[in-house]
From TrEMBL:
Top-level taxonomic group: Bacteria
Protein name per Swiss-Prot or TrEMBL: Multidrug effflux MFS transporter
Sequence similarity: Belongs to the major facilitator superfamily. Bcr/CmlA family.
Pfam families: MFS_1 (PF07690)
Membrane spanning stretches: 28-47, 59-83, 95-117, 123-140, 152-170, 182-202, 231-256, 268-287, 299-318, 324-345, 357-380, 386-408
Principal location: membrane
Major facilitator superfamily (MFS) profile domain residues: 28-413
Subcellular location: Cell membrane
InterPro entries: Efflux_drug-R_Bcr/CmlA, MFS, MFS_dom, MFS_trans_sf, Sugar_transporter_CS
Topology class, membrane: Multi-pass membrane protein
Length: 426
């Protein structure tokens, strides 16, 4: 395995990840994509089964949506623990242990006897997926910086977009042959495959000399330092609020489309895929837009567009104008604006704290999924109709825009920052 040392590249030098041989770089990025997919697959694969789980356990829709909230909370708090741990002991150990926890929790979900047990196991699944999410982000920051990081995050967002397409479709197809428990059998297989790929392909990207071993006091100090950075805090809040809009769609769409508009589980999977296509297209468009505009310019434009489209969605839902198309078209367009915002806000945030990449990625992920977790029960409390979902979608985009302009003040950010990055020595 290659050694790693820290270098500070001049302005015209490629980042460490770009110095890797193309084949090796491709394999590493591919596995990072798989790790990034574990969280979305865990969240989305059982969405077509939510109404079935509601009937099976004789529960309310809001109670079943709490199992989704539990997963998101596990993703949030798990990252707060695993991020600093990965800064202290390296990336591989916490990563493999976390995916192993996800694997065991998935097996136990198959035999969950009631909703309370299922909800608790979903929290454990979230904790396990948190390791995959935060370590993947930290590895990106270990190897890439500046525009290179923003471009790679856009590629990884392709995975985040593909996962929602595949997950409900796989879940819907699984439900054709078995019960909702079969969905967790599939998740077990997926976790095992991802764990094997990570073990075989990913190197240790954090050398011993760059690890932070300050213990609990050091972790608290690192988090405290992050909270003193107003711009970083604002950017992670923007990411979380944009995620809240996305989660409002994820948690509410199965009830809106299946119960409200009478779509079958398979039809729901196809329609859900349409929104993911918009998300995918936007993230890949972002790579091209970065050739002309800065990440902060794209972030501002996407948020403003998201607010306008979210308002249109809310008005059409409240007035019941346009039927199914009146909901789906503006909703898909809002998701596209989220797809533009999501790669750029994290890239800008992480570029400010390369020395504590794991901790910075952990707090980013915790806020992202923590704020997002609030959206799922909020939709349930407001109702299971299109208006309730639209209110939370619009509210998330509006709040993200306000935070961006008031706290981040993107017009004051530098165009690009050059920081020390890790380089492979062959």
């Amino acid at each position: 395995m290659a050694e790693i040392r820290t270098v500070t590249p001049p302005d015209d030098q490629l980042s460490a990840g770009e110095l890797l041989p193309p084949g090796r770089r491709f394999r590493i990025v591919l596995v990072l994509g798989l790790l990034t997919a574990l969280g979305p697959l865990t969240i989305d694969m059982y969405l077509p089964a939510l109404p079935t789980i509601t009937d099976d356990f004789g529960a309310t829709a809001a109670a079943v949506q709490l199992t989704l909230t539990g997963t998101l909370l596990g993703l949030a708090f798990g990252q707060l623990l695993i991020g600093p741990l990965s800064d202290a002991v390296g990336r591989r150990g916490p990563l493999l242990a976390g995916v192993g926890v996800h694997l065991i929790a998935s097996v136990l979900c198959v035999i969950a006897p009631n909703l309370a047990v299922l909800g608790s196991l979903r929290v454990l699944q979230g904790l396990g997926a948190a390791a995959a999410t935060v370590v993947a982000m930290a590895i990106v920051r270990d190897l890439f910086s500046g525009l290179a990081a923003a471009k790679l995050l856009s590629r990884l967002m392709l995975v985040v977009g593909v996962a929602p397409i595949l997950a409900p479709t796989i879940g819907g197809q699984t439900l054709q042959f078995t019960s909702w428990r079969g969905v967790f059998v599939v998740l077990t297989v997926v976790a095992a495959a991802i764990m094997a790929a990570a073990a075989l392909v990913l190197p240790e990207t954090l050398p011993v000399e760059r690890r932070r071993n300050g213990g609990l006091a050091g972790t608290i100090r690192d988090y405290g330092g992050l909270f003193t950075d107003r711009v970083y805090v604002g950017l992670i809040l923007v990411t979380g609020l944009a995620m809240a809009a996305l989660i409002a769609y994820v948690s509410g769409s199965s009830y809106v489309l299946q119960d409200g508009f009478g779509l079958s589980k398979q039809q729901f999977a196809y329609v859900f895929a349409g929104g993911a296509i918009g998300l995918i297209g936007a993230t890949q468009l972002n790579v091209r837009l970065l050739r002309r505009w800065t990440p902060q310019q794209i972030l501002v434009g996407s948020l403003l567009a998201g607010v306008g489209l979210g308002l249109i969605l809310l008005v059409l839902a409240a007035t019941e104008t346009g039927g199914l198309a009146g909901i789906l078209i503006p909703l898909w367009l809002v998701l596209a604006t989220v797809g533009l915002a999501m790669p750029n806000a994290p890239a800008l945030a992480l570029s400010r704290h390369g020395e504590t990449a794991g901790t910075a990625a952990a707090l980013l992920g915790a806020v992202q999924f923590g704020v997002g977790a609030l959206a799922a029960p909020l939709v349930g409390v407001l109702g299971t109709g299109a208006v309730a979902m639209s209110i939370v979608v619009f509210g998330g985009m509006l709040a993200a825009t306000v935070v961006c302009f008031v706290v981040v003040q993107p017009h004051r950010l530098p165009v690009e920052q050059r920081e020390p990055v890790a380089a492979f020595v062959h």
